[in-house]
Amino acid sequence: MKSRIISSLIALAGIATMTAQMTPRSVVTTAPEKVLLTIDASTLLDMLDYYESGVARTVKNKMGEDAVITEMTESTITLLTGEAHNITFAMLPYGKSSIIMTVDRVETPATDATVTFYDSRWNKIDSDRLLREPSLADWTGKIPADSMREIENALPFLMVDARYNPETSTLTFEPQTGDYISVENSDKVKAALAPRLDYVWTGRSFKPVRR
Questions:
Q1: Residue 119 CA to chain centroid, in angstroms?
Q2: pLDDT > 50? residue 1
Q3: What DSSP state is assigned to residue 121?
Q4: Bridge pairing between strands 124-125 and 85-94
Q5: Over the chain, what is the mean pLDDT?
Q6: 26-to-12, 35, 89, 118 alpha-carbon distances in Å
Q7: 141, exposed or middle or buried, with CB in 10 Å at 0-12, 13-18, 19+?
Q8: Backbone phi, then psi, for 122, in 5-degree steps?
Q9: Which residue, among 99, 98, 75, has the nearest Cα to 88 in the 3D structure?
Q10: What's the rounded Cα separation, in Å, for the pair 119 and 125?
């Protein structure tokens, strides 16, 4: 119990310290409830204790579903928070400090990812100045106007998966066409879309890696 109280106090104190001192543990233990809806503080500490002890053991979230930490590096941590949801927290160097990026992935059943940025106090940062998420034209590249109209008509919306690699500072998007495209248009749409788009962190923003 004492160790948990100390861990919680350290995490809370981390909010007021320099962002360069952020760790995966301090980031997740200070994350607001709206970010980790189904994981309470006690459960999160159990998850951290098990992972750091090398114990591969799941715990139950608020809904009775299995939750576990699946990966932790010096600058990232990924949690499976429930049956069809996982979230990655990444600390990105930003000038002389750091910011937090979350990659929230929901299986619907195709995976739909949301990328969000916060400062060290969990104030949301305007994502537009840090990442211009890909448009349909980015996925297709330069194609004739009539072909683009065909793709737009066949593709009512495009869900996108996202994963971050801390070793290369690269955020990778992959299209998820799922079952919402008609069978007759499926092959055409898939052939028109790039299999992935990579964005590399420059220290100020994510820049596309040209194909």
A1: 15
A2: no
A3: T
A4: unpaired
A5: 89
A6: 8, 14, 11, 14
A7: exposed
A8: 65, 30
A9: 75
A10: 7
